C-alpha cells in the first residue's frame, strides 16, 4: 500500500514583504504544489493522500481562496484526507463547516472531522487527531491511541503539533509524547505516524515510522525552516505481518526564502555581493534576506544601495535583515575634496562631513544621506 503524506499547505497565506505581483504568484505556487500532487500520485501509484493539519492559513478566508483551493484538491484525483490543525481548527468558525466549503467540496476530499478511527477500506484505517481549538489542553494523540488493538488492520495515525523531544517547552499540555508513539508502533497498533506542524522535513525518533513531511512550498526563511518543499511517498507492505515501512521524500516546491550573511567593507566586497546575487537562478521565485556587516565610506554605501536597488527589482523580494545588519558609514579622507565646488558650497560639504563623522545620532544619519545624495548628483553614486 502506497500513499502520500503532506501537511501545512496553509492555503491563503500572505507574506507581508511580498509586493506587486509577487504575492499572487506565491499564492498560485502554493495551490499548484497541491494540484501537482495528482501527477506525483499517478507516477508512484499512490492510493490516497493524507494532509496532517493546517490545510488553510486560518478559518476566515475570502470565498475565492476557498474555491480555488478546493479546485486544486479536486485536481489531485484520488482520495485526499484533510486533518484540521491549529491554523484551521474545528471550532465554531471552522472553514470546514462553512456553507461554501460544504457546498463545493469535491467528492475525493474527506475531512477527518472526528477523533479516532476512520475506515478507508477493509484492512486499512486512518486514526485521526483533529484540533477543535487553537490551544488544546491535552495530548490529542494519546487520547486516540488509547485502546487501539493489535490485530490485522493497517493503521496510519494522522496528527498535528509539536513532539516533546523537539519542543523546548516540555510543559506544554498539547505536546505529542514520542514515547507513546513509539510504544504504539512497537506493539503494532500503529504502523506509520504522519505528522504536521513542523515545516521542515524531519524524521522523529529511531523507528523510521514517525515523520513530519514539512510544507510542500516554503513559508519561512532558512534559519527557521531549513528543509521545506517536500512530500513523502510512504510504502507499507501489508503482506508482511510486521508492516515494514519505506519512506521516500520528493521535492515539489519551487520558491526559496534565503538568508545571506555578507561582510562589506570595500567596493570589492560590494562587487562580490552583486556577483553572488547575479548567479542565483529563478530570482522571481526567490526571497532574499541580507544580513550585512561592515564599515563603508559614503561612496561605497551609495554603491551598495545602488546594488540592492538593482537586485530588488529582479527578486520576488530582497532586503536587509535589520536585526542582524550593522553597517557603519564614515566619510573617507579626501572623499569630497575633488568635487569641483568651492565657496559656501564647499564649506557646507565640510560641515556635513564633520557631522557625519561625529557619531551615529540623527544628525549624523541625515548628514550621511545628504552626502550620498550629493554623490549621486555628481555621478559618483552608482555601483
From TrEMBL:
Domain of life: Bacteria
Keywords associated with the record: Exonuclease, Hydrolase, Nuclease
Organism for this UniProt entry: Mycobacterium lacus
Listed Pfam families: Metallophos (PF00149)
Coiled-coil regions listed in the entry: none
Membrane spanning stretches: none
Full protein name: Nuclease SbcCD subunit D
Record InterPro entries: Calcineurin-like_PHP, DNA_Repair-Maintenance_Comp, Metallo-depent_PP-like, Mre11_N, UCP033093_metalloPase
Domain Calcineurin-like phosphoesterase: 1-219
Signal sequence interval, chain numbering: none
Recorded family membership: Belongs to the SbcD family.
GO molecular function: exonuclease activity
